Amino acid sequence: MQTVGQYQIEIYRDETFDKHSNDNVHLYDHVHFKKDNYVFPTMIGVKVFKGNNLIQSAIIGSIGGGTGIHSTSVIYENERLLICCSDSIFCLSIPDLILLWQTRADQATCFEIYKYQDNYIVHGELEISRLDVDGKILWQRSGADIFTTISGEQAFKLTDNLIIAKDFEDRVYKFDYDGNELTDMSQFS
Question: Where exactly are the structural domains of the chain?
């Protein structure tokens, strides 16, 4: 559970949820799905508490690959949270969990999201993206293969000047924060 101001936020996977069933383990005030008839590989429940009282709940789901919940898959801000879910980034208001925007930031799966200045950097399976505060894609870059390593070695890193990503064949990509791929690294020595 994460504390944001006066609220506590719980985020968890809920792959058994069915919008059309009366037998769900969790009930939600909001269901944020773009398509009703698709079985989503990742569905994430969000609950907002004030003290011991449940204030609001929501579930999000999208198409694409599966997404885990970890320290770099969610960003908590004062009045909203951003979360990776399959191929999309969802932005929900706190505490009412209204969907402010949803952006498909990768063709497959969004692994991580990071705050960078007033924007966000998304580490996706196929693309590295930069989003503005309203979820608009400012730029996207891809590589020759997926941005993950077979060895499990760290595949993505933000530095002061660079975004560094490794692909499945251990090729290294370096981008500046304007999305330009850098081949001459002498300026960063």
Answer: 2-188
